[in-house]
Automatic annotation (TrEMBL):
Organism: Pseudoxanthomonas wuyuanensis
Presence of the UniProt keyword Coiled coil in the record: yes
Secretion signal span: 1-24
Residue ranges constituting the YbhG-like alpha-helical hairpin domain according to the UniProt record: 74-188
Major localisation: other
Protein name, UniProt field: HlyD family secretion protein
Length: 323
């Protein structure tokens, strides 16, 4: 009996030792991350209202904060006035000359025609007198020049009347239309900028950070709010070079989160094709001297309560390890 117990104990010990000597599943280290949405400041204006707090969950379209509106409203009003003025100028071009302007041009033509007729008659009277040397030659020359000048004025008046009668050139209308489009576009830009001063959530998520406080004036492009979006976090890991050939997008993995007993099922959603140097927190043993490949592992809804930044360990199927 004693010998049997000894043999059983030895067998159990051998099994335990054999299990302990088995190689562990291939693994990679990393951290939990959430998809982030950063809302930059469209203009450098003072924050006049904050509607949320850090850590608060918000729905898409929920107001987050508001910037000072006064200056942008004035710029919008000026742009709209410029667009209205340009539109009125285009309407004037499209309507063409007024009937009063055409009537005035006709009257001007009649006046210069009368002057030209008088100048021709005077010159005609002086010509025979000049040939008889009854008047100075200079006087005849002046009459001839006056008659020619009067004829030129008649032609100019005729062309001016013709220009009015034909209306506005198509090129001028095209220029007016382009000017109106530019002015309207500028007004639209100011409208969009004004709307952006009321900062709203583009997606449902949780407010991760509000870098600026009430009354602060953030520079253009600075993040006013940062949201964590998506149904669950993902694991950003660094796949060691020996495992890369066996890891593909769509592979199922087990994600071990520091502080949680049970692993979370995950799936590879992205893996880089170019290697990089392994970050210091992902170095394990011989992997310290190797390159790694950045990868992302999507998690299910059961991981929705996990915060960002937690260290994780991802285990692959043993077949992923390169022989």
């Amino acid at each position: 009996m004693g010998n049997n117990k000894i043999r059983i104990a030895a067998a159990v010990m051998a099994a335990l030792l054999a299990a302990g000597c088995r190689p562990s599943a291939p693994q990679a280290l990393g951290t939990l991350e959430w998809d982030r949405v950063s809302l930059p400041a469209p203009v450098a204006e003072k924050i006049v209202r904050i509607d949320v707090r850090e850590g608060q969950r918000v729905e898409a379209g929920a107001p987050l904060l508001q910037l000072e509106l006064t200056r942008t409203r004035s710029q919008l009003a000026a742009a709209q006035a410029q667009a209205q003025q340009t539109r009125a100028m285009l309407d004037e071009l499209q309507a063409g000359p007024r009937s009063e302007a055409i009537a005035q041009a006709r009257a001007n033509l009649a006046a210069v025609q009368a002057q030209a007729s008088d100048a021709r008659a005077y010159y005609a009277r002086l010509q025979p007198l000049g040939r008889q040397q009854l008047v100075a030659a200079a006087e005849v020359d002046r009459a001839r020049a006056a008659a020619g000048n009067a004829e030129a004025q008649v032609r100019a008046a005729q062309q001016a009347l013709l220009e009015l009668q034909r209306g506005t050139r198509s090129e001028q209308i095209a220029q007016g239309e382009s000017a109106l489009a530019a002015a309207q576009a500028q007004a639209d830009v100011q409208t969009v900028t004004l709307e952006k001063l009321n900062v709203v959530a583009p997606r449902a998520g949780r407010v991760d950070s509000l870098p600026y406080k009430l009354g602060d004036q953030a520079p253009v492009g600075a993040p006013l709010a940062i949201l964590l979006v998506g149904e669950a976090p993902y694991a950003r890991i660094y796949v060691p070079e020996p495992l890369r050939a066996g890891v593909q997008v769509g592979d199922a993995v087990q994600v071990h989160v520091d502080g949680r007993e049970r692993p979370y099922p995950g799936r590879i959603r992205m893996i880089r094709s170019e290697p990089g140097f392994t970050p210091y927190y992902a170095l394990t043993g011989k992997d310290a001297a190797r390159l790694s490949y950045l990868a992302e592992v999507s998690l299910g809804a059961e991981a929705a309560d996990l915060p960002a930044g937690f260290p994780v360990r991802v285990e692959f199927d043993k077949a992923a390890e390169r022989e």
